[in-house]
Amino acid sequence: MIFSHWLATLLGGSLAIHGALGAITLNVDDENSLKTAAKTVASDMIDFYNARDSKDIPGKFDGTWWEGGSMFMVLIQYWWLTGDSQFNDAIQEGMYWQKGDDDFFPSNYSQYLGNDDQVFWGLAAITAAELNFPEQSGQPSWVSLAQGVFNTQVPRWDTSSCHGGMRWQIWPYQSGYTTKNAISNGGLFQLAARLALYTKNTTYAEWAERIWDWSATTPLLKQKNWNIADSTTCDTQCTDHGDWQWTYNYGTYISGAGYMYNYTNGTASKWKAGIDGLIGTSSQFYPTQGYNGAAGNVLVEITCESVEKCDRNQITFKAYFSSWLAFLTTIVPGSSDSIMPKLKTSAQAAIKTCTAGSDGTLCGIKWYNQAADGTNGLEQQMAVLGVLNANLIPFKGGAPLTAETGGTSKSNPSAGTNSSNQAVPTLNNITTGDRAGAGILTVIFVTGWAVAVTWMIRGG
Ligand SMILES: *[C@@H]1O[C@H](CO)[C@@H](O)[C@H](O)[C@H]1NC(C)=O
Ligand SMILES: *[C@@H]1O[C@H](CO)[C@@H](O)[C@H](O)[C@H]1NC(C)=O
Ligand SMILES: *[C@@H]1O[C@H](CO)[C@@H](O)[C@H](O)[C@H]1NC(C)=O
Ligand SMILES: *[C@@H]1O[C@H](CO)[C@@H](O)[C@H](O)[C@H]1NC(C)=O
Ligand SMILES: *[C@@H]1O[C@H](CO)[C@@H](O)[C@H](O)[C@H]1NC(C)=O
């Protein structure tokens, strides 16, 4: 995905109607109240999805591809937690449409995707497998689609610099190819850890551990102080650091460590140390000073919210952080007290931003304000749905399934290995439309990179 918050104009700038009509009532201690609120938030999200220009292409959003995967991931959680299956057809249709050669690397978009874009679809697929989300006959299984992503990403492990690591972007002509970033590495780490627990195939566990250990040799995972830098570059052998702090970077490493903790039967102390350490430093996302008196109880995307620079990607990150951490409480005994209380107060605050639009239910970005903030959009809905899902997890009970505990999705370790998309694409074959798109993205990135480098130099 392309981070352009330095250029960001707030999306969904349509005027919020403060206090109009509805507003959603929520009692976070009541399962039915949570379900009712989640249904409203999810329905409004799907209304945005159905209104997109590219609605003839299932799963494809206007101007972004990866968010389809992350939205389906959150909707699959929603279905499992509430039993509301009204979105299941749309989920299946979009997931299968975008499956590519069983690897979520469809040729329409593969020329300009990053590893992080692809891995989110893999995370949606493993979520579907773990929760026994319905499969269609004649289609690849959910777990095989997750394996297809793993199988296409692992050959991209790059030892030509930094002794390893996933690059951010996939092709040499993409700006960002010389960057290694936390979400691409943390995303594959989490996917591998989840495949390890689901299938019990040690290959996945070895890769998860390899990615974690490699990350720990770079600023992407500093075990000394449990800080996660957003990015580092090949040119410096991964010694420089882009230090923006993002919830989902922490969320993805914490979650993966949780799956590895459970996979290793709690015997390997490194995973518990990682979980505790990173939950500790995640407290920065619950700031105690400022933020309208949120007093350490409301989740904040601290790098962009108060300065009103969150781009559409960044608006969604709180969904993943919240739901991944809440799922972790089901596989890491004793972790609930350090996770759930703040997700509860965050949900209560988040829902108070949902007062915009003609029905008075569209949500904003800044949960800490506990009021509409003049923005609305699909991404705002996704973030709030994520934190409502998180709060439903303790009511639902149960944990992600594995092949041994009732997961019915069938493993296919060679999924995605017959892909025609492994070779660097020939740029001549890209249609004018795609090339223009890629060019624009590049310009945005290069502009941003100058700012980022300046920032890194100043930030040390
Ligand atoms: C690829 O693009 C074509 C033409 O717009 C479209 O019909 C098709 O649905 C797209 N496929 C995917 C996977 O998005
Ligand atoms: C965890 O325990 C189970 C049951 O005793 C055992 O079969 C499995 O091999 C153990 N897993 C690891 C990674 O040690
Ligand atoms: C792994 O998760 C399962 C499912 O919740 C749980 O029963 C089990 O105790 C966990 N294992 C460890 C070692 O915590
Ligand atoms: C485990 O995964 C690896 C890598 O995909 C594969 O080569 C191997 O066949 C798998 N083993 C089993 C028993 O499924
Ligand atoms: C791989 O793809 C080719 C071309 O689509 C097909 O002919 C072949 O049967 C596939 N092989 C396997 C093992 O799926």
UniProtKB/TrEMBL annotation:
Native organism taxonomy: Eukaryota, Fungi, Dikarya, Ascomycota, Pezizomycotina
Keywords carried by this UniProt record: Glycoprotein, Glycosidase, Hydrolase, Membrane, Signal, Transmembrane, Transmembrane helix
Secretion signal, residue range per the UniProt entry: 1-22
EC numbers: 3.2.1.101
Biased composition (Polar residues): 405-426
Spans traversing the lipid bilayer: 436-457
Record has Transmembrane as a keyword: yes
Tagged with keyword Membrane: yes
Record's catalysed reaction(s): Random hydrolysis of (1->6)-alpha-D-mannosidic linkages in unbranched (1->6)-mannans
Gene Ontology CC annotations of this record: endomembrane system
Main location group: membrane
Family affiliation: Belongs to the glycosyl hydrolase 76 family.
GO biological process, one term: fungal-type cell wall biogenesis
Subcellular location: Endomembrane system
Protein name: Mannan endo-1,6-alpha-mannosidase
Renumbered residue ranges of the record's region Disordered: 403-426
Gene Ontology terms, MF aspect: mannan endo-1,6-alpha-mannosidase activity
Organism in which the protein naturally occurs: Penicillium cataractarum
